[in-house]
Amino acid sequence: MLQNLDLNIDSYPSRRAMGFYKLSDSAKNFAQKGLETAQEAASFYASTGDKLSDFKNYKISDLGAEIMYSEQRELVVAYKPGPNIDFKA
Asked: Which branch of life, at top level (predicted)?
């Protein structure tokens, strides 16, 4: 009777939700974040250059104030899934 029991526990969905990724998922996330960061940096440098080109109306101290105080903080409360458990008897 005990020979026909089958138990599968897949804890990867819950581990992934907590930030513990497989190597392939981690590499994909790292590559995506790298692209996003490069795009944000290019956009920031372009907008900064545009602002600084108007040197009569825009000061470097204004740029420093924008960079220092522009970050927004956010609290996120989210559901974290448990493991997938399949049991067959």
From this structure: Bacteria
